Amino acid sequence: MDGLGGLHKAASNRPERTRAAPRGALYYSHVMQTFNKIILSTGADGRARFREESIELPEGNPQAMLSRLFPSSGYQLRHSPVGFRSQWHCTPKGQWVFILSGEMEIGLQDGSTRVFRPGQHFFSDDTLPAGASFDPKVHGHWSAQRGADPLVTLFLKV
Predict the structure, then answer these.
(1) Alpha carbons 131 and 116: distance in angstroms, whole number
(2) pLDDT above 70: percentage of residues in the chain
(3) Residue 107: closest CA among 134, 89, 122, 130
(4) What span, in angstroms and rounded, lies between the C-alpha atoms of 24 and 19?
(5) CA 32 distance to own-chain centroid
(6) In the list 60, 78, 84, 146, which could disulfide-bond 103, CB 3.0-4.6 Å?
(7) Which of these CATH numbers, 2.60.120.10, 2.40.30.10, 3.10.310.40, 1.10.10.10, describes 34-157?
(8) Is 153 in contact with 103 (CB distance < 8 Å)?
(9) If DSSP codes are grouped into helix, strand and coil, which group holds residue 33?
(10) What pLDDT is stored for residue 63 in this prediction?
(11) Computed from CA positions of residues 53, 58, 59, 64, in that sequence, does the dihedral angle turn out positive or negative?
């Protein structure tokens, strides 16, 4: 805050309110041009890892930038109770994972983990390499519910 009711975060994607703006009005000093896509993928060594890539947002207008339309084949909803933890597994086919409520932790073979909270998402594409037999000491990831609330996720199949 600048003491005048203004919010100044021009270098971010957050709204900026200026002195000239009527009370409650928001103006954007920075328009998001790309979307950050977090991807859980399989490396050449067969191990799952996270990586990131940008998706261009060439459509829409400054108030609602859009990507191109991507195909999908359907979705599933999942409710995981407090204490849920999966076995090691690979994603059968690429899918978006959206956290609707609760928290989801993903664990990888290298010992690293990442927690996703409500409103966050990632693209899960750590499929079993062609011709490989699943080995839980090499392939895949595990997922677990974290926190006090059950985990509710939406899986958007591509």
Answers:
(1) 31
(2) 80
(3) 89
(4) 11
(5) 17
(6) 146
(7) 2.60.120.10
(8) no
(9) coil
(10) 87
(11) positive
3-class secondary structure, 83:
coil
146's CB contacts (< 8 A; 6+ apart) are: 102, 103, 104, 105, 115
At residue 15, what is the residue type?
A: P
Q: How far apart are alpha carbons 37 and 92 in whole angstroms?
A: 19
Tokens for 16, please give them. Answer: 């900026």
Strand 103-108 with 141-146, pairing: antiparallel
Q: Is residue 7 pLDDT above 80, yes or no?
A: no
> What pLDDT does 31 receive?
64
Q: What is the largest CA-CA distance in the chain?
A: 64
* Tokens standing for residue 48: 């799952």
- Would you list the domain boundaries of the chain? 1-30, 34-157
- Whether the predicted pLDDT of 26 surpasses 50: no
User: If phi over 0 gives left and psi between -120 and 50 gives alpha, with beta otherwise, what is residue 3?
Assistant: left
DSSP state of 122: E
Q: Using one digit for the tens of pLDDT, what is the confidence trace for 35-63?
A: 999 999 999 999 999 999 999 999 999 88
